[in-house]
Protein 1
Amino acid sequence: MDKPHDQLASILADDMTAVNDLIKQRMASENAPRIPEVTAHLVDAGGKRLRPMLTLAAARMCGNTTPYHIHLAATVEFIHTATLLHDDVVDESAQRRGRPTANLLWDNQSSILVGDYLFSRSFQLMVETGSLRVLDILANASATIAEGEVLQLTVAQNLKTTEDTYLKVVRGKTAALFEAACKVGGVISGADEEIVDALAAYGDALGVSFQIADDLLDYGGATVALGKNVGDDFRERKMSLPLIKALSHADDTELEFWKRTIEKGHQEEGDLDHALTLMAKHNVLQETRDDAVFWAKKAKKAIAILPVSDIRQTLMALPDYVVSRAS
Amino acid sequence: MDKPHDQLASILADDMTAVNDLIKQRMASENAPRIPEVTAHLVDAGGKRLRPMLTLAAARMCGNTTPYHIHLAATVEFIHTATLLHDDVVDESAQRRGRPTANLLWDNQSSILVGDYLFSRSFQLMVETGSLRVLDILANASATIAEGEVLQLTVAQNLKTTEDTYLKVVRGKTAALFEAACKVGGVISGADEEIVDALAAYGDALGVSFQIADDLLDYGGATVALGKNVGDDFRERKMSLPLIKALSHADDTELEFWKRTIEKGHQEEGDLDHALTLMAKHNVLQETRDDAVFWAKKAKKAIAILPVSDIRQTLMALPDYVVSRAS
């Protein structure tokens, strides 16, 4: 049985070809060849194209009547690519999708400015749809993404970060684009408000479960996945969900350990193992997995009102798959 | 006699109060207090608010009939502020408007992400105007700005940079926003195409003369201006117009000097003085000033078709003032 993601890719193959063509066409720049070079490095590395597929899937389920779902899928991928370029500068990352990052191959300057260019290109694409409603949704999503990223920055290494704050960060930096990707697919197809809301709720919940599963993977939820190294979040001292949960159970000695390794960043050999031992002691990874399952269920429930179809079935399987990656 | 810029500020005082209020309101962020902190640091430092005043002036000259010129003026200032935040990271600048830069006071991460936020906020503001034409103009301008910045980055320290390439960079990084600022003021007021084109041509030419004058100031066109230090562009090895002109006149010995100081960046005491001597020898600063005057004339000629008014008179005086700063 194929992964739901591959099933989607197969069902949406023709549309995705059109999206990829449009992306290639619009990432060009007559005046500044550096732009397509940097963009191609990231775009050609693949990535799962999950977000544009969500837009196409939503549009298809709502009987899309315009050609603009292609524009919107490309828009969503451009916004995503722009945020990746900026994120890698902000996080000083050296690897993305198994390749050296653009900031490493070129420089931070190129990543910042090419990100700005792609972001502008994404707005040009959505303007072409002629739908002010769509523009409103995507402009709001962009602001929410940036807000989530800034919030994440300001709570970095802050051991007092609550699950509530974590959720605000995740809904911004990850779920906002999933939500908008699904929502605009419905809106551009003239779907009823009830359906549009259902698609938005699905995207939001899928995005949250996706990020929680990602956090979990980083503490070894599964050993081999996505080229991720266990412990990256620990080494980068990120306030991810397993850590927040571990802190909520910590006694005084444990708190001292977290203060030293995360707050102060004085990490020694064996610290990651000890962190994992503390997480196991308090059953933190299971609790995190339960949260991911909760959001996955929420996602599935949201689209239960849509008519049964191949695509709906695949979207129903997707949240479970996202969580199972990390189990 | 007041400077034209101060005259504009006085004529447009009520509208500018509304613009400043809207900027304050929209730079807020409930979730991430870092955002208004960083933005306020830049916004409160003043700056001349030239770009939003151009939007208001254009709208007023075209008998503005909607309240949305205020939104558009704020949009333009947000785009400008976002690009300043990113520019200061790209250039590793430590000072802006006589104060330490945000990247110095906070960090590069905050400047990148708050810039992204303001850029998204600017799109939200323009969506509220409900004008797809305006959205199209500003989305194009944003892409052109980023393209100009990337082009500037890729020709940095390249002694073969031509005046043609210089003009492409300047029309992108500086003139595109001046042009769009003027143009949307006309469009939102329902002006005739001929008038809209005239406003766009004015903004473009004003922007180019503004940047050339800025380049000139940096090589001491005038001694005290804007808190700029003579020689910053030389030390930062920027391919500004006086340098490009000096290179076009350089003999072999002079070329070696420019290769050492700009291409390789091996600068010693006395090099700036020698650079200024070479520029004087070839009359380069006068040539640069002539170019600035050429663009200033072009700007004035463009709006000659507009009906005579206080505002038109002030806009007519502005290009001359911009050039005279550097004389």
Protein 2
Amino acid sequence: MTPSHLSATEAAAQIRQGTLSSVDLTKSCLARIAETDALIGAWAYLDAGQALAQAAALDQRRADGHPLGPLHGVPVGIKDIFDTADMPTALGSTAHPDRRPDTDSAAVEKLRAAGAVILGKTVTTPLAFVSPSKTRNPHNPDYSPGGSSSGSAAGVAAGHMPLAIGSQTGGSVNRPASFCGVYGFKPTRGQISRRGALQTSETLDCVGGFARTLEDVALLNDALTGYDPADSASHDRPRPQTLAGCRAEPPSTPKIAFIDFPPFNMTEPMRDVIEEVAGTLGPHLTRLPTPDCFADFLAGQHTIHTCEIARNLHGDPAIDPEHTDDLVRDLLAQGRAVTEDAYAAARANVAKAESFFAAFFQDYDALLCPASCGEAPLLSENTTGDAVCQKIFTFAGVPTLALPMYISKNNLPLGVQLVGAAEGDDRLFRTAQWLMTHWSQAGMGPIPKGTA
Amino acid sequence: MTPSHLSATEAAAQIRQGTLSSVDLTKSCLARIAETDALIGAWAYLDAGQALAQAAALDQRRADGHPLGPLHGVPVGIKDIFDTADMPTALGSTAHPDRRPDTDSAAVEKLRAAGAVILGKTVTTPLAFVSPSKTRNPHNPDYSPGGSSSGSAAGVAAGHMPLAIGSQTGGSVNRPASFCGVYGFKPTRGQISRRGALQTSETLDCVGGFARTLEDVALLNDALTGYDPADSASHDRPRPQTLAGCRAEPPSTPKIAFIDFPPFNMTEPMRDVIEEVAGTLGPHLTRLPTPDCFADFLAGQHTIHTCEIARNLHGDPAIDPEHTDDLVRDLLAQGRAVTEDAYAAARANVAKAESFFAAFFQDYDALLCPASCGEAPLLSENTTGDAVCQKIFTFAGVPTLALPMYISKNNLPLGVQLVGAAEGDDRLFRTAQWLMTHWSQAGMGPIPKGTA
């Protein structure tokens, strides 16, 4: 198999064994990028020489008998809102073309400490917000890859690299994962440090990862998590081991809940996929009515996101008219109009959401819902799609996993989302592995419906 | 077995399985302390209620199904130079009785993130330097436990807790380990962050651990290591997995070197132990002449230690006459007398030492030497013993492991030291495990020579 197509888990194992070099893997990724990126546009910054120099140094470290990290020699794409000491970090904005911080962000530090090749910076929507980026969906270049982690999702889907990191404040990890047909994981709030990443909302921002296999996205997550006193949301308790979660047997058959929340606004193909998954689950799925609080949580996410991003970007030239668009300016105006009382009420609802889901997951291993309303939107629609399927869970800080379940008749991916208990990230992976096994045993999987 | 006597590895496994609670383990440790500490004096600060509250919270987290860290529920003693947000940190000095920093040191953060109970603060010699502390050797209270990590070494030896952390600038981890008959490990420079620990020498200070089994000291080390940009010595490369090292088979029979360096000044009992180990190793041991550079490295350690500690403690009331003694004041005066040229020459020798050992360990898996000149000194000698057996290796930043090899006719422990290649900490543990297996198969072990 072409090295760029290997999973990260397999590539890392081969590098460890000495049957593949990091240089060959990185060259293969660079070749795949050279071949496809003119169409896809996943990269904000990429210097092939710099990536190969890192790979060569890692190969040398292995040859010298030094310890190898879990990602030794594996290229990872970095959303261009995470600071890198050796590459520019332009935040997706035309206002900051020369921005070049001195130090790595915590996530990049963790990746280097795990032995990864920092391949380059992937395209983000401007300031990780709602305006589309230049990136196209690798399944069909007329469609959006989603946002704001556009380049990370599209690059992983296109085989540019096995792993990439992104961030989510509304739905910027799990939605592009659904649109691009890859796995996306946003861990429990506070598991991964946000130090050195663009702060848009101190309450909601979180770091997440993309990969083409479930184990890979867990491998990446385990390398990223850890306590960091520099991040106000970080906590000093043990981290769930998500790769071990993938490999664990559920102690009893998982209990999965489904809530048909009308604002998820599922298209017919998405409803079909959800119903097929529900059919596969049979008696292990419980359909529940929509809890009253969901509407409050959804509204609370909007209040906090718009209010905090307006405050955080206040005075930043990136929001001047020549560097931004009406979509963003309208939302910032909404954020500035949020009263202190409305903000305090939304903050109080965060604690309510945490308690609600803590109680909810006493009874269920996971909540099933769509990872996007439907297929990716056309680029001509000038949107990266609706984050409604993620907002409640980002608000509550619970872990969410997008699973690439299906390719539609239009050759566009459709993902479902599994949501788990806070700090039960490992259990969520265990449940997801069980679900994917059931799904493939039932003869389903991410194949074009029309060609089945 | 009384829970306080369990290894950390076994206790953590039992807590994980639910056959032991952290509260019962902590109570058992507290009972052992209550029984013996009036004689030993290992504790600078201990609040039983606070320790039990941590243990109860950890038991509750397990009951709630939260993820468990590798040290979940296991009590760890903290040398009283490491800041703790919830306990005083008096640095062993009468000048700072009420010192109470707001935040945890990096090492304590890591332990909490691994699920440990922060049991309390162990006695350190004043400012982690040369003056004796109140702590006595648990094997015979007329003798010193060594220093500066006196309470950590003595407490682990006495069964107060399975694990403790200390620090080494000269020989403050491996020497007390030898005197108290426990394992002591100082990893490669830069593996564990020193943020929030008393800085005596930015070049030489390092964090290390104590335990009663080889696996335990590796388990502790793995929980402590990690990159931290706040520590100038910390590096962002992967960390060796030392517990995995303990459990790995050497790919070929280890090659061990021995250098009979006269300044190690071995007593007859220590020479006997080293010769018995050499006999056990047979053809796997190579005796080498003393390299010329060893004398320079030894002198360089003294120059840097005294110069940097004098600079770091400048203006600290702890070095005023009423809070210190002649031993310390004399060394600080020596440090202040170091010229810029002498300091620069010593710093240049650090790089030379790093290169020397990098080349040396191309040919050998480990260097064998004494972990102390001999048995612990009598308290009446007013010394914590000579750090000469460690200084060269602390200077070079290579990992060193003290192995409790023998109990002398006087019922005092004698340890040997294995030294390994920088960043080859896992290989060093693999070699040590192989040596200890050989040693016990040869019928040897830490039993009184007279009673064999």
Protein 3
Amino acid sequence: MAEPRISLITLGSRNLAKSRRFYVDGFGWEPVFENEEIIFYQLNGVILATFADAALKEDMVAGELYRPGAFAIAHNVREEGEVEALMTDLAAAGGRILRRADAPPIGGLRGYVADPDEHAWEIAYNPGFAIDNDGNILFGT
Amino acid sequence: MAEPRISLITLGSRNLAKSRRFYVDGFGWEPVFENEEIIFYQLNGVILATFADAALKEDMVAGELYRPGAFAIAHNVREEGEVEALMTDLAAAGGRILRRADAPPIGGLRGYVADPDEHAWEIAYNPGFAIDNDGNILFGT
């Protein structure tokens, strides 16, 4: 059995400078490493990488990669009021609003913003999921 | 500035039973919640969700979602020998090998396996990235 773990999420990018603006100016995250091909951001025990499309395809030995892909990454916030504020910042940094913030069936508040490479981020306030001091989420606590 | 955090990764699924087999029998991860539409797995401070495609599209208000998407999720292991062993388990549980394990330019060992919904997992041993006791990864340490 493998330990239950994700180590990195790597997002293909068509234009790393535009992507960088979204993550640095929109989320306010600082790269821990960057060159012309890849940028790394240290998150809560997980590294986010944005990687030039051609290099990602070569590394994966993928035929063709498509967008938007059938996935979303969620960033949960601690206070309900942070959802719309962050979505506004992300849109101002080159993101595209997919769904304005509203209440999902389980309660709370969430909206979706696509990054400049069409990768979907859900920005959510979910009172049913605890966020600890390190920013980690625990299911149903 | 938003805290540097990913809370959930949600992967669209065309067949949750096949997907479940890959994560439960392949990785050996136990769901913390499941119904006909969604399955949650608690990982290192991040939750992995597999969500029926139609429900994900409705939640995101997405037009069309495509696969394979331009992204990969990495699961790093602690010992080099674990890479091929885990890839074998994943292939036996319905995964498809995209790239057999070999050494990337930075050293170590990595391969890629697609889950039954064509989402790419990189299985990697990277001696340059430390994995702490909680399974978290720290860049360049």
